[in-house]
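Service request form, structural biology core

Requester: graduate student, group of Dr. S.
Request type: structure prediction, single chain
Budget code: on file
Notes: please return the result as structure tokens.

Sequence provided:
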Amino acid sequence: AHVDCLAEMAARNPSMTTVEGRLMLYRWFECAICYQDFTGTLELEMKRRAWRRYRDAPLHSEDRHRVLGGVAILLRFNDEDDAARPLVDASMRGLAPDDPKRLIHEIQCAQALCESDPHAALRVATALGPRVARCDRNGWLRFLFVECLSFVLGDSLGRYEEALLFAAEAVELAPAIFGPESCSALHSHNAHAACLASTGRVDEARAVLARALATATRVLGADHRQTKKLREALETITGP
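Core staff response, request fulfilled:
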């Protein structure tokens, strides 16, 4: 993709006008044709460009968090911690310790830490538990928290029995938060199935994925990215 061209279109798009002091930033994060989120290298590059464009602008705190924090998370996943650190500081500017936006970012940072030090990631994530319980209003923070612990314990540390408990909770929380047929709810089945398979419950894992795939195919279509991910997981799932 011509990233410079995509960034220029995002900056010129009429949707970038402000609404009640807020920037409409979604053109930096999703395709204007198919409305799916950018991923991988393209996601990182588009968020870098959004940060360069708006880093000195008098942004609403939530916009600043989304631009700077989004880039910081991606940099950490790409082992660029030194570049990420000042962005983390900037994105957190003005946010109280128990502000949900700060907690969301800290949960994401804990998950990103898995790449370099999964044991430290587990300590950081676990320590966030009391603050999440104190500040959660609609289940969203709890969902991110248990999803993070499932990832750290399962994918990074191989402690699948423990990870399964959190993955199952994420599956229960997702429909009420996002809707029973949303991408996020469907995506939560991937981690759940992986934990089931890794603990020897392969038939249960396949059944979970088959149901999710049927729903995704009906709601999103056979060629949607989430549908493809579920199909690939079902085709490749194996036991421990």
